[in-house]
C-alpha cells in the first residue's frame, strides 16, 4: 500500500493552549491521578480528633479518622480500593487522594471534607476536578488514487484516544480543505472507552502539494501532526538514491583497484622470474606459478563478493 516514492515526515507539536479553566487535575485512562489537597489551616491536626473524607458529586469515596494523630479508621468506600490517601495526613497535612485505574466516569469534581473533635459541622478543605483523557497515536497518512482524473484521496488514521477528537487537514501547510471534501469516522474500541479516528480527504490537483493531518487532544494538551510530502519534496528516496550511487561508485573503485593490484602482482612476478631465470631451478618457477593462480583466484572471489 505504501509506494516507495514518498516520504512521510512526522512532527510532534505540543501546542500552547490557554489555561483558563485548567485548574483541574488530568488523568490518563488506565493510569492513576493525584487529586491534591494540602491542609494549610491554623488549627493543629495532631492535638485534635479529626475525620476526613473525600466525596465525589454523588458519593463518599474514602473516610479516615485520627485520634491525636493516630489512625483509628481507614475505609475505602469505592469498589476495589481504587482510592488511597497517605496514612500520615495529620503529620504532613497532605490529604491528597490517589485514584488508580482511571476510567472516563471518573471525570468529576471531588471535595475533601474535614471535621474536628467530632463536631457536627465539617468544612470543605479542597475542591478538585478531574479531567480524563487517553493519548491518540501519531496520525498516519496514506495516499490513494480515485477513479476521477487529477483527484487524490488521503486517509489519515489515529488510534486509541479519548475523548473522541476530530482530525484536521491542511493543504500546502495553510489552506483548509474545500468544504465537502472530508469524511470523518470514529470507531469505538471494544472493551474500552477509546476511539480510533479516521478522516478521508478527497481533493483535486493535490498530488504535488504537502498535506498535513493533525489530531488535537484538548484534555491532555497534546497536538500531533503528520505531514505527507509529495514526490518532489521527499527526503528519504533522495537518501536512498545517494546511497545506491555510493554503492555503485565504491564497487567500481574496488574493481579497478583489484585489477591494478592484480596487474601489479603479475608484472612483479614476471619481472622477478625474468630477472632470476638464469639462476633458478625449474622447481622454483613452478611454485611461483602456483602463487600467481592463487592470488588471481583470491582476487576473483573478492570482486565477486563485492559485486
Ligand atoms: C500545554 O503544554 C504546553 C507545553 O508543554 C505548556 O506550556 C502549557 O502550559 C500546557 N497547557 C496546559 C493547559 O496544560
Ligand atoms: C490556604 O490555601 C488556600 C488555597 O489553597 C489559600 O486561598 C489560603 O490563602 C491559604 N491559607 C494560608 C493560611 O496559607
Ligand atoms: C489506609 O490503609 C492503606 C493500607 O491498608 C494505606 O495504604 C493507606 O495509606 C491508609 N490511608 C489512610 C488515610 O490512613
Ligand atoms: C478524642 O477522642 C477521645 C475518645 O474518642 C476522647 O477521649 C478525647 O477527649 C477526644 N479529644 C478531643 C480533643 O476531642
Ligand atoms: C503553496 O504555498 C506556497 C507558499 O506558501 C506557494 O508559493 C505555492 O504557490 C502554494 N502552492 C499551491 C499549489 O497552492
Ligand atoms: C484501530 O486501529 C488499529 C490500527 O491503528 C487497528 O489495528 C484496529 O483494528 C482498529 N480498531 C477498530 C475497532 O477500528
UniProtKB/TrEMBL annotation:
The keyword Membrane applies. Residues 1-19 form the signal peptide. The chain crosses the membrane at residues 245-269. Its main location: membrane. It holds the Pfam family C2-set_3. It comes from the Eukaryota. GO terms for cellular component: external side of plasma membrane. InterPro entries: BTN3A2-like_Ig-C, Ig-like_dom, Ig-like_dom_sf, Ig-like_fold, T-cell_Activation_Regulation. Residues 144-225 form the Ig-like domain. Keywords: Cell membrane, Disulfide bond, Glycoprotein, Immunoglobulin domain, Membrane, Receptor, Signal, Transmembrane, Transmembrane helix. One of its GO terms (biological process) is negative regulation of T cell proliferation. This is Ig-like domain-containing protein. It comes from Alosa alosa.
Amino acid at each position: 500500500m505504501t509506494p516507495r516514492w514518498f516520504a512521510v515526515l512526522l512532527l510532534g507539536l505540543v501546542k500552547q493552549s490557554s489555561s483558563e479553566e485548567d485548574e483541574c487535575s488530568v488523568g490518563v485512562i488506565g493510569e492513576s491521578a493525584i487529586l491534591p489537597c494540602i491542609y494549610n489551616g491554623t488549627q493543629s491536626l495532631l492535638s485534635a480528633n479529626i475525620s476526613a473524607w473525600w466525596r465525589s458529586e454523588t458519593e463518599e469515596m474514602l473516610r479516615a479518622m485520627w485520634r491525636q494523630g493516630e489512625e483509628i479508621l481507614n475505609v475505602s468506600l469505592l469498589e476495589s480500593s481504587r482510592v488511597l490517601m497517605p496514612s500520615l495526613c495529620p503529620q504532613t497535612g497532605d490529604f491528597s487522594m490517589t485514584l488508580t485505574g482511571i476510567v472516563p466516569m471518573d471525570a468529576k469534581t471531588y471535595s475533601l471534607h474535614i471535621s474536628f473533635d467530632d463536631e457536627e459541622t465539617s468544612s470543605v478543605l479542597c475542591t478538585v476536578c478531574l479531567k480524563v483523557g487517553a493519548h491518540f497515536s501519531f496520525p498516519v497518512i496514506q495516499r490513494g488514487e480515485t477513479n476521477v482524473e487529477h483527484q487524490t484521496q488521503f486517509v489519515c488514521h489515529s488510534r486509541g484516544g479519548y475523548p473522541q477528537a476530530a482530525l484536521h487537514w491542511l493543504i500546502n501547510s495553510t489552506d483548509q480543505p474545500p468544504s465537502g471534501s472530508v469524511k470523518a469516522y470514529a470507531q469505538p474500541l471494544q472493551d474500552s472507552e477509546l476511539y480510533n479516528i479516521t478522516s478521508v480527504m478527497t481533493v483535486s490537483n493535490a498530488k504535488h502539494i504537502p498535506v498535513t493531518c493533525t489530531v488535537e487532544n484538548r484534555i491532555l494538551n497534546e497536538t500531533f501532526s503528520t505531514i505527507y510530502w509529495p514526490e518532489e519534496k521527499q527526503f528519504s528516496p533522495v537518501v536512498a538514491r545517494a546511497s545506491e550511487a555510493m554503492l555503485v561508485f565504491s564497487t567500481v573503485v574496488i574493481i579497478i583497484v583489484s585489477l591494478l593490484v592484480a596487474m601489479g602482482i603479475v608484472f612483479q612476478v614476471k619481472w622477478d622470474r625474468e630477472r632470476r631465470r638464469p639462476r633458478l631451478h625449474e622447481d622454483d618457477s613452478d611454485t611461483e606459478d602456483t602463487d600467481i593462480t592463487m592470488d588471481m583466484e583470491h582476487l576473483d572471489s573478492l570482486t565477486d563478493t563485492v559485486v
